[in-house]
Structure formats: C-alpha cells, structure tokens
Amino acid sequence: MPTPKICGIETEYGIFVRGADLTPMMASSLIVNAYSDEGLALRAWDFTGEQPDFDARVGWRPEADYPEVEVLMANTVLTNGARYYVDHAHPEISTPECRSVSDVVLYDRAGEEILRSSMERANARLPEGVEIVLHKNNSDGKGNSYGCHENYLVSRDVPFGRLAAQLTSHFVTRQVYTGAGKVGTECSRDGEADVLFQLSQRADFFEEEVGLETTVRRPIINTRDEPHCDPERWRRLHVIAGDANMSENATFLKVGTTALILGLIEDNKFPDHLRIVDPVTEIRHVSHDPSLQHVVTCESGKQITAVDLQIELFNSTQKWFNTLDMDPTNGDGAEILSLWETVLNALTSQPEKAAHIIDWVAKKRVIDGMMARHSENIPLERLRAIDLQYHDMNRERCLAYRMSLATRVTHDDARRAMTEPPADTRAFFRGECIRKWPHDVSSANWDSMVFDIGGPLLQRVPMMDPFKGTQSHVAALLNSCESVTALLDALGHDAVEPVADDPGW
Amino acid sequence: MQERIRQQKSTGSEQTAPSEEVQASGSEASEKLKSDIDDLLDEIDEVLESNAEEFVKNYVQKGGE
Question: What separation, in Å, do the N-terminal and C-terminal C-alpha atoms of chain B show?
C-alpha cells in the first residue's frame, strides 16, 4: 500500500531592480521584510534539523557544494504555515505541507499573491522611478537558473536506488505537459544545435543523473536527505527537475502525476521496461523538440517518444490506482488521472488543444503568432521579452494572465490561503500557534515549534509526524488554552523539550 | 528546429474547463480562432514593455537553490 502523500512546493522568484543599484540580496530582503514589517509574518525560523548536505546514498558529504544555511537574511514563517525567506539572491516561498494536490495548487497560488503583495508594498516605499520586478520563472536566458522544487513524503522502505532509476523516466518525459516554455537555448553543448523554442525552462541545466548539489552540476534526481520528519519511517523526496508553472492545472499535473507515480514505485508496480538510457542527454533533447517527435531509447531496447512513454506510464498508474482501496493523494487521484489523459490525448493529436493547460503550448502559440505576424523579421530579444513577461508578477504586465488559462483556485480562496493553514497536516498547529501567540513563539521549523514563556529555558515542541497537529487533532485544544503555558501543560512533559538556546537566533 | 516551429501554426485554445475538448471545426471556427489569436497579439503588443528588448538585455539573475 502506498504512503499517503504529503507534498509541497518551494519557489524562488526572479528579481530585478529598475532604476537603482540594489544588490539582489538587498532587494530580496526588502521584498520579504515589506511583508513581515506589517505583522503578516513572524521572523523566526529554527535551523535545528537543517542538513542540506546529508546525502540519501552515503550519509554526510560535507565536501559537496551545498548552499550554506543563511541565518542573517530575512527568514519568516506565516500563519498559513508557509516559510517565506531570502535564499541566496532570491525571495523564496515554501508552501505549507499539504495532504491533497489541490491544496498544493491553492498554496502555490497563495504564494503568488504573497509575493505580489510584497512587491506592491516594497515598491510603495521606494523612491519615484525605482521598482522591484518579480518573475515566477526559472532562468534569466543567460545561463543562470533558480529553482522550483517539489517535496513528497515517501516511505523509507523503498530502496533509494530503485526509486531514483524509475522516477528519472518520469522527469525526462513529464516536461511535455509541465514545461513552462523557453525562448532559446542555454548552456549550449558541443555538437548540439541551439533551438529557438523549447518545452522547459530548466532542462538545459541538468548535468548528472543523481547527486546532492542543487546549484552546480545539477542532478535529475536530488539526493538531499533532510526528512523534516521521523527518518525511520519516511524520507522527503526533494525534486529539483521541474519548472515553476503559471498554469494552475500544470502545477496540478506536475505534482499529481509525480505523487501517484511515487505510490506506484512504493508498491513496486513501475513498468521497468521504461527506464531511459542516458537521461541527462534525453531530458534536454525532449525539451528541445516542441514537435514532440524525438525518440528516446529505453534500457529494454524500446524506442519511444516522450508522449508515448507518458501514455504507458499513465496506463500503468491508472491500472494500479484502480486496485487501491485508498487514494494516496487524498481524493484528487481520479481527477489527476482524467486530466493527465486529456492532455496526453491533446499532445498526441493537436497540442494547441491544451493551450489552456500547458504553459509551453500557451507561450509558443504567442511566439509563433508574433513570428507569423512579422514575417519572422522579429528580433530575438523581442521574443525573449514575451517569454520573460509571461512570468511577470505585476498583474497588468503578466502575459500568462491574458492567455485564458483554465483556473482551479478562486481569487477569494487564494486570498484566504495567504493567512489560513491547511486543516489536515501539522502546518495547522504551526500556523495557528503563530496566529494566536506571535509574541511567545521563539522560532519555528517544519518539524518543531520553540516557545519562550519567560523562564530560563525555551520550550521546544517536536512535530516529527506530519500527519499530527491537524485541525481535528488540536483545534479544540488550542481553543481551550488561553496561553502558551496552558498549551504546554496540556501537551504534557513528554511532548516538550526544554532547550537552553534558540538555534534560530 | 525553426522549420518545425513554423509548421505548427496555432489554431486556437479553449477557455473553459480543462477536460473539455475544443469543439471548433470548419472554416468559420478557424476564422474565429485566428481572430482570437490576433486580438491576443494586439493586446501583447500593447502591454509589452516599451523598452522590452533593453529590459531583457539587462535581466541577469544570480543562480539560486
């Protein structure tokens, strides 16, 4: 039986300052602080348990090029359970832990609203003529990339090597519907022709099949083993091989298909004849061919297009799903399968039929239209500008909002999710504690809350089970407690660890 | 690759629920879809930054993650 999935997305936004000489770190801090300064976020993140250099394959690898944890940059946690902070030179938001894929889409959309609100607040403080511009994209078109990472709860029982080998085929081919589209080629390889348009923002940047790094020598499968939960039972699979999507349905498919296929892998039902030979080359070649005719070779000798491989994966997943008496995606499974089938049918016959779902198709339609209108005498930079502006967080400028993309989340729901946590994961406890007792929370992390109740020691509440701390578990308890002291008393000594220092600060 | 891109002329999209298929067929529908994309392109020409090409040239990001 598959593990019920808990999922989330972390998105780094592109940031550009018009009219002033601000470093991206400063500008990113202005963005995050513009939000927290108005009491919309709590500046407290607990770094206990952050171990980005812990490798799922071999244990600690301190020599690897992992990003150092930055404690001096703006680092906040929100009442919706999200983390909002500066990562390197970008503002980044991580959704709270979600039990359904629909909730991941909802909190990803709420994240967009939070970034947009921050941008408007920050710009209102800046002098006339100075503006910070944010983009939900993954590349500057000049060889620099930043990520949109997915996270999935997976059983520890699955051998990591098998999981990595099987999932790679999905990551190489899911681009046909998850790609956000890109004008041009980056990181050109010797002997490979550059392309005018490709499916993915990210595909050009992968250099390894499996590895720990995320900023250099990027791997298709990232081995960061930082579970943020009981490591005996689960791992948190950290996926870096994806684009940030503007289309809500593309996000739904990206996370939904991957969550289901992880269940398929947990139950050891993955069709092994679909393992792809040379995935590092193929992830690029699939992306570079919007005609979708490129053929990959599988280890079984089978030759198949990315769309046809996805059709086989879909068939296996659907057959397996129909045998389950539970839905690992908490009620979204049937809709994920239905939409997956719909887009694969469209991609097989006429990709334009999916222009309301798939970002690259929507973007390419405009690029093709512009080229036709100008008899192809259009400067490449103008096409790149269309590409970039597709992802602009300013509602007036954003081209994605003009593409008639089908939506899943109402504006009101996205606004509400900016402040309210999901009801059915530990994010509920985190968000509600921060809302009720912002002055008593010393810091927070995915798997802990640290309270300061005025004594010589701080009080740390570990949350190693992401399925606990839900609304049904703790809402009545939280409502019945007038203070954190009362809460800690009610939780009991076994649930609280007194600690001398808050590692967050 | 440019050849391939040119071959795939856009014929339209649909704007309702994601699982619905495009119903348009025949010359009348094709004309409507063509006019939709024309309207969209007009709109994009209007909202595209006045100095879009300059903006793109200056758009440099630090790598992240």
Answer: 31
Residues A251-274: b if buried by 16+ CB within 10 A, e if exposed: bbbbbbbbbbbbbbbbbebbbeeb
B7 Cβ under 8 Å from any chain A Cβ? yes
Q: Cα separation of A96 and A154, whole Å?
A: 17
Minimal C-alpha gap between A482 and chain B (Å) = 40
Contacts of A364 in chain B (CB under 8 A): 5, 8, 10
Least confident of A2-16, A350-364, A374-388, B35-49: B35-49
Does the pLDDT of residue A193 top 70, yes or no? Answer: yes
Neighboring chain A residues of B56 at a CB cutoff of 8 Å: 141, 381, 384-385, 388
CB atoms within 10 A of CB B2: 12
> Over the stretch A432-472, which tens digit does the pLDDT of each residue have?
999 999 999 999 999 999 999 998 999 999 999 999 999 99
pLDDT-based confidence at residue B65 (cuts at 50, 70, 90) = confident
What percentage of chain A carries pLDDT values higher than 70?
Answer: 94
Please report the pLDDT score of residue A45 as a whole number. Answer: 64
CB nearest B2 (choices: A67, A196, A386): A196
Residue A156 tokens, joined? 């520890």
Q: Which helix (H) or strand (E) holds A55?
A: strand A54-55
Comma-separated ranges of CATH 3.30.590 domains in chain A: 7-416
Give the CATH architecture of domain A7-416: 2-Layer Sandwich (3.30)
Is ipTM > 0.95 here? no
pLDDT for res B29: 62
- Token pair 């081209």: residue: A399
Question: Which residue, among A237, A149, A426, has the nearest Cα to B64 in the 3D structure?
Answer: A149
DSSP for residue A394: S
Nearest to A315 by CA among A347, A346, A337, A286: A337
pLDDT at B64: 73
8 Å CB contact of B15 and A214: no
- Contact status of B25 with chain A (Cβ, < 8 Å): no
Token pair of A288 as six digits? 């570079």
